[in-house]
From TrEMBL:
Keywords: Cell cycle, Cell division, Coiled coil, Cytoplasm, Cytoskeleton, Phosphoprotein. This is Cell division control protein. One of its GO terms (biological process) is cytoskeleton organization. GO terms for cellular component: cell division site; cytoplasm; organelle; plasma membrane. It is found in: Cytoplasm, Cytoskeleton. InterPro entries: AH/BAR_dom_sf, F_BAR_dom. Residues 1-51 form the F-BAR domain. Residues 59-85 are annotated as: Disordered. The lineage of its organism: Eukaryota, Fungi, Fungi incertae sedis, Mucoromycota, Glomeromycotina.
Length: 85
């Protein structure tokens, strides 16, 4: 009879632990779904053309094209001032 009580306690314990685990996973899924919904809302408000125009307006370099940098041949062994690269 003692083994039956032990087995009943074991089953009740597993039932309680698995119930708590299922509730925990369920609540995590709800939080994950809410986070994903916030991402989707942000993505819906994203306007590609507006973002590109804002980038151009804020980060444009202007109408002047800079001179290209001078070429340094690293295989030649030394630079213009005698330093070795």
């Amino acid at each position: 009879m003692k083994f039956q009580y032990l087995e009943e306690d074991r089953i009740e314990f597993l039932k309680k632990v698995l119930w708590n685990y299922a509730n925990l996973i369920s609540s995590i899924c709800v939080v994950d779904d809410e986070s994903c919904e916030r991402i989707r809302v942000c993505l819906e408000s994203c306007d590609v053309d507006k973002d590109i125009q804002t980038f151009i307006k804020e980060r444009a370099t202007g109408p002047d094209i800079p001179e290209p940098p001078s070429y340094v041949n690293f295989y030649a062994g030394s630079g213009e001032n005698g330093t070795r690269y």
